[in-house]
Amino acid sequence: MSNFVFVLDTNKQPLELVAAAQARRLLKLAQAAVYLRYPFTIILKYAVSHPKKQPTQLKIDPGSKTTGLAINRGDQVIWGAELTHRGQQIKNDLESRRALRRNRRNRKTRYRKARFLNRTRAPGWLPPSLESRVKNIVTWVNRIRRYVPITGISQELVKFDLLAMQNPEISGKEYQQGELAGYEVREYLLQKWGRKCAYCGIENVPFEVEHIQPKSKGGSDRVSNLTLACRGCNLAKGNQDIRDFLSKKPDIRSH
Ligand SMILES: [Zn+2]
Fold first, then answer.
1. Is the pLDDT of residue 50 over 50?
2. Cα of 234 from ligand 1 centre, angstroms
3. What is the pTM of this model?
4. Residues with beta carbon < 5 A to ion ligand 1?
5. Residue ranges per domain, the chain?
């Protein structure tokens, strides 16, 4: 895919994208000037009439670390970019601020009124790392709309995208925050394990969320270490190492 170039008319209104070669020609003939470096946009120096809009779709493919943006004309992808999100950096910054503040509070020994259980969260609150991801995408979609005559926007809807699919190493604790809490983990596990007990394959019974490698044996809270088991299997497994518990069922173990 060779990226097409965004074009503005003399009134800074978006025109249809042109191929890179044509943009170079316009620049060389001084019929256009560079308006923006990124996204690369040129501005025409002569007036044109606006033809009927061609169907131009902006496609958004969200991910946890990056989000893909693509502009399609018909079946052809004519422009693409990848947004890098700052999720981890924001998380680290907030954690470091928290540590600094805690340290300061501990150094000041004067009487200080209790300040806990005093936090409120507005409805629709998202963890800051997610909030930033959403705003990042919205900012770029609006920016692109200023420079491209977009006729439609479509977004890949990935049900578990936010937490699990892109980042299966996200830990259990993060799942417990916000409105996407326990329900999503459960639903994710139901999908992943096909609504069956991971050990005996029974269906249509109440399932319990289970650590594959028990915590007492060093297993983590990460979703990759969680599964669903029926009551019977959960009791039978108890605190056993997964290798011992399934030593007679190697095919299930590898699953
Ligand atoms: Zn079972």
1. yes
2. 7
3. 0.56
4. 197, 199-200, 202, 230, 233
5. 5-84+130-157, 163-254
